[in-house]
Specification:
127 residues, alpha+beta, 4-stranded antiparallel β-sheet, 3 helices, 4 strands
């Protein structure tokens, strides 16, 4: 029988940021102006040490992830897929304890589509 104290216990934490101004799109007006996007980040990692240790270094830091989003949002890219995979790889690079990351970017009312439309891209990367 295995010891439950040392078995991995995988859990998730997430960050949702709505209305983040990003430089994103292929149309001239999207290249010239930032636009609001909704960004969701979900990180999975081993929680087994958290029961006995109340230590921020054991978890992905929301402030750090928010900083990655802020930094990336200032650089223009054309494809939402490109934006999403860059952020996912950054999260995995900075937080080695994260075993899986899921990123979703929603682009409300993108140029070229009717009012009320939302374009989105979502990616899940595992180590």
């Amino acid at each position: 029988m295995s010891n439950p104290e040392i078995e991995p216990v995988f859990g998730k934490v997430g960050l949702e940021q709505k209305g983040v101004q990003v430089m994103l799109g292929v149309y001239p007006e999207e290249k010239e102006n930032s636009r609001a996007a909704n960004i969701f980040v979900e990180c999975e990692f081993d929680w087994s040490q958290l029961e006995k240790n109340d230590d921020l270094s054991l978890v992905p830091d929301y402030t750090g992830i928010s900083g990655l989003i802020e930094k990336q949002s200032k650089v223009h890219v054309e494809l939402i897929e490109h934006w999403v995979i860059r952020l996912a790889r950054s999260v995995l690079a900075i937080y080695p304890k994260v075993t899986k990351v899921r990123i979703r970017l929603e682009k409300p009312e993108p140029s070229g589509l009717r009012i009320g439309s939302t374009a989105w891209a979502e990616l899940e990367l595992k180590r």
